Amino acid sequence: MPSERIELLQGTLDLIVLRALSTMGPLHAYALTTRLAQVSDHPLALNQGTLYPALIRLEHQGWIKGVWGRTESNREAKFYKITTSGRTELTRQAERWRRLAGLVDKLLLDPQESGS
Amino acid sequence: MFARLRRIAARLTAQFRKSHAEQELAREIQSHLQLIEDELMAAGMPPAEARAAARRKFGGVEQAKELQRDARSFLWLTGWSMDLKLGARMLIKSPGLTTIAVIALTVAIGGGAAYLEFINDYFRPSLSIPGGDRLVGLVYIDPAKGGSEARALHQFSQWAPRLTTVQHLGFSRELEQNLVTADGVSETVRSAEVTASIFQAVPIPALHGRPLLPADELPGAVPVAVIGEDVWRGRFAADPEVVGRTVQLGGTQVTVVGIMPAAFALPINSNVWTPPRVRPDRFANGEGPSVRMFGQLMPGVSVSGAQAELSTIVQSLTADASRRTSGVVKPYVESIWTGSNLVTQVRLLYATNIFSLALLGLCAANVATLVFARTATREAEITVRTALGAGRGRIVAQLVAEALVLTSVAAVTGFTAATLGLRKIREISVAAQNEPMPFWWNEQLGLETLAYGVLLVVIASLIIGGIPALKATGVNLQLRLKDAGSTGGTMRFGRWWTAVVVSQVAVTVVCLVAMAAVALAGVSMSRSFDDLDLPQAEYLTAYAEFREEVPAAQRQQALFELKRRLSRDTAIVNATFVNRVWNHEEFWLEFAQPEVSVAAKPPGDVLWVQGAQVGPDYFETFGHRLLAGRRFTSGEIESRANVAVVDETFVQLVLGGRNAVGLQVRQPPTDTNDKPGPWLEIVGVVTDLSKNPVKTTEDATLYRPMHLGADTRTRVVVHSRSADAGARLRAAALDVDPNLGLAEVMTMERLVDSEVQTFRFLSTVIGIVAAVALLLSTAGIYSLISFTLSRREREIGIRSALGAAPRQVVRAVLDRALKQVGIGILIGSVPGYVIGSLDLVGSYAFGAWTPLVTTAATILFLVLVAGLSCVVPVRRALRLQPTDALRS
C-alpha cells in the first residue's frame, strides 16, 4: 500500500524552517514540528529528531539564532529566531524553489494538454 | 564565501566545545520531550503513558543526537580521530613491532633533533637575553692576513664614529687572570676587558652595585671590576659588602663596583669584567691586541642594512683599491665564527644532517617492511573493506594514521633522549675544558628543532604507513577477492623490500665496524694511559697564559723563573714544560746516513715517529732514565739548540739496536713546508714512557728542546705528592708575574678521564645506532622468513607430502633471506673495512690486522644473529604437517 506521507526533498527542510520562523516569529523545535504538521495537513513524514540537524546547520550558517526562554506553560525551551541574513537567504531560496517547481510543473503537465 | 567560512569556523569551534554542545543538545531534546508529554497529558493521558508516547512521537532520541553530531562536526576529522584510536590499539596489539619501531625511530628522530639543536645552539642560537636579538658582531676581513684579522682596534676607531645603523659599539677581549682575595688565595677567573657599551646593549641589571660605565674607561679613572654571580658566591660567600672592596686582578688592584647575575656572561663565558686598558685610536693598522667588536642594531635596522653601511664606510676608507679589505656584520654568535674555517664547516655540519635524514629514511623503510609483513596478515580485512567501497585513499589514510601514532610516540621519547644527550655533551665538554659552556648554550630543544622533528615524524609516517598501504592496495581487487579466503594471499615481498633489507644489513655492518673501531680506539687510548709508567694522580697539568702584548723574550724569562720557583718548593718533586702532554705531534724524519735505519730501508724513505718539544727537567719529571749519552742542558733549551734525545723504542725499532748518539736526523720537506728542518744531532737515549710491550716504529719518540715563550699558552706539568699542588702552582705563578694566568688546571688523571670520556660517549652513540641497525636487520630478516613461510605453507606441505627432505624444506624457506643477508654483508664490508682502517688514535694500534679482524668479527656476529633469527620460523616449517598445511 503506497504511503500517503510525503518524503521531504533534500534541501527543502531548510527552506521550510526558515519560512515558518519568518511568518510565526521565534519558535522552539516542538512548536516548529507542530506548525509544519498543521500547515501540511499532517502528511509530512517528519521524524521530529530529523529537525535538529537542520537547526544546527542553519545556526552555523548564521541564518537562525537559538536562545533559551520559557514557553506559555512555563517550560524551558530553546527558541529559534530568523536573522537578517536568514531572511535574505529565505528570499533567495524561495525564488529558486519557485523556478524549480515551475519547471517541474511544466514538465509534468500532460503533453496533449500543454500542446492544445 | 563568508557563509562557508562561518560554517567552518562554527564547526571548528564545535570540535573544541564538544561537551558543551552535547549538554546543550540533551537539554533541548529533554525540553522537546517534555512539551509533547505536557500536551498529551493535557489531552487526558496518564503521566507514565504520556512519557512513553512522547518518546515514540519524537522518534529515536539517540539517532537524532547522532544526526545532529554529524551536522556539527567534520566527518573526515572524526574519521581521523577514529583512525588514530585504531592506530593506538594496533600498537598495543603488536607489542613486538611497536617496541622495535619505537626504539629505532627514537634513535632516528632523537638523533636528528639533537644534531640540529647542537649546531643551532653552538653556531646560530637565538639569544634570550634582553636586546640579544639585535646584538651583532663586526669582523674585519683582510685577505692579505688570510681572512679575519682580530687585531682590529685601528679599524674600530675608524668605523665607530661613522656607523649610524649600529649603536652601543664596543670591543672586548677575554683572558684568564688570577684573582687574589684578601686572604692571599689566588684563583683563575675568566675575565674580559670590555667597553661599558656591552652593559647598555644588554641591559641586565646588576645584583648589587653597578655595571661598568663609560667613565671607567677614561684615562686616570680608578681601576674597577664587575664580578659575576659565580665568583661572588664561590670566592666571596655571596657577601654584598664586597662592593667597594679592593681585590687584586692580575697585577692590578681593582675596586669591585658591581655583581652581575649568572645570566650575564658576555662576551662568551666571562665572570669578571674590567674596562679596556687600551685606546683604540693609538694603534696603527694591524697592531694592538686581538679583540672582538660588537654592537647593537638600531631599532628597525636589519643586519643587511648595517652591512651595507659598513661596506660603504670601509670602501671610502680604503685608499688603495687593490687591498680588498672588508667589514662584516653578523648576528653576534655567528660573528664569533666568521672568518674562521669554521664557517665552511658550519655549512658542512648542516649539510651533514642529510645523514640523519638518511638514517631516518632507512629506519622508517625497515619499520615499513615490518608493517608490510603485518599488513599482509590484514589483507582479507583490507580487501573486504575495498570491496565495500572504501577508497584506496581511505585505507592509505588509515595506515598512515596508525604510523603517525607510532612515530609520535617515538618523537616524544626521541626528544627526551635528545635533551639528555645534549646534557651529556655539555658535561663532557665542561669536564674537558674545565670551564662552562658559552652563555648562549641552551639544551632545551628550540622551535626550529621541534619543527624539524615534526617534519621527521611526517616523513617517517608517510614511509611507514604509506608505502605498505600503497603496496597492499595496489593489487587488482578481483584477484585479491579470489584469494582472500586462501592462506596464500596476493601480497609479495617485491624488489623494494629486498632492497630495504639488503641496505639495512649493509648499514649494520658499517655501524658495527665503526662502533668497534671507536670503542677500540677508546680502549687503546685508556690502555696507552694505563701503560704510562707514572702515578697520574700526582701529576698536575695547566696552561700558563700570557697577555698577547707580553713579548716572547719576557714570556720565556717568566717561564724559566716559574720553573726555578717550583724547583725551590720542597713539596714539588719536579716541574717542566711540554707542548703536548700525551699523544705527541707526528714527526716525519729522515737520516743524514740513511743506511742506519732498519725501518726506512730504501734511500730517501722517510719515517713517521712521535715527536715532543720539551722544557727543562722533562725527563726527570716524567721519570725517564738515561740509557746513553746525555740529557738536554738548560743552555740547549734556552738557545733551542739543534739537538734531540730519542727513546728506547726508537733505538730498537728504527735503528735496530744501533748506537743512536751522534746520528743526525731532520724533518724532510712536507706538503705545507717545502724547506727541510735543520739537522738535529741525537745526544742521548732515554727509557720509554710507556711500558706496553707491543710497539711499532710509530711509537718511537724523538724529543727536541722547546722554544719556551714562543706561544702565549704553554703547558706546565708539575709532579707533586702534595694535595695542594694546584695552590702552590698558582702561588708560584702569582709570584713570578701577576699577569701570568693559569688555565685548565687539573691532574693528569682527570685529563685522561675527560679524553677517555669523549671516546666513551662517541662509542656509546655509535653503539646505540649499531644496536638499532642490528635490531632492525634481525627483525627484518625474521619477518621476511616468517612471511615467506606463511605464503608458502601450502607448497611446503605438498612438497613434504611428496617426500621432500627436511634440508630441501629449510632451503626453500631460507634461500631468499640468506641471499639478501649475503649481498648486504658484501656491500657493507667495503666501507666497513675502510672505516675500520681509519687510525683514530694514531699513537697506539692493535696491529695491522685490526681492521680486517674487526670487519670479519662483525660479519661473523651478524651471520650468527641472522642465523638465530631464522631458528623459530625454520622450526615451524619443519614441524609443518602436510595434512594440516593442505587442509588450511
Short précis:
By secondary structure, chain A is an alpha+beta fold. Chain A is 56% helix and 14% strand. In chain A, helix 1 (12-24) packs across helix 4 (84-108).
Low-confidence stretches of chain A: none
Q: Looking across the biggest beta sheet of chain B, what order are the strands in?
A: 3-4-9-6-8-7
Overall helicity of chain B: 40-55%
Number of helices of chain A: 5
Shape of chain A: globular
- Main beta sheet of chain A: strand number and arrangement? 3 strands, antiparallel
SS elements, strand count of chain B? 22
Helicity of chain A, as a percent range: 55-70%
Descriptive labels:
heterodimer, A: 116 residues, alpha+beta, three-stranded antiparallel sheet, 5 helices, B: 888 residues, six-stranded mixed barrel, 28 helices, 22 strands, globular
Description:
Chain A is of the alpha+beta class. Helix content of chain A is 56%, strand content 14%. Chain A is built from five helices and three strands; from the N terminus they run H-E-H-H-E-E-H-H. Chain A has helices at 12-24, 29-39, 51-61, 84-108, 111-115, and strands at residues 27-28, 64-70, 76-82. In chain A, a hairpin with a 5-residue loop joins strand 2 (64-70) and strand 3 (76-82). In chain A, helix 1 crosses helix 4 (84-108). The longest helix of chain A is centred in the last third of the chain and has 25 residues, at 84-108. With 888 residues, chain B is an alpha+beta fold. Chain B is globular and about 120 Å long. In chain B, the strands form three sheets. Chain B has a six-stranded mixed barrel. In chain B, strands 14-15-20-17-19-18 form a six-stranded mixed β-barrel. A four-stranded antiparallel beta sheet of chain B has the order 13-21-12-22. In chain B, a hairpin with a 2-residue loop joins strand 7 (246-249) and strand 8. The mean pLDDT of chain B is 80. Classes of the chains: A alpha+beta (116), B alpha+beta (888). The interface between A and B is medium-sized, with 24 and 29 residues.
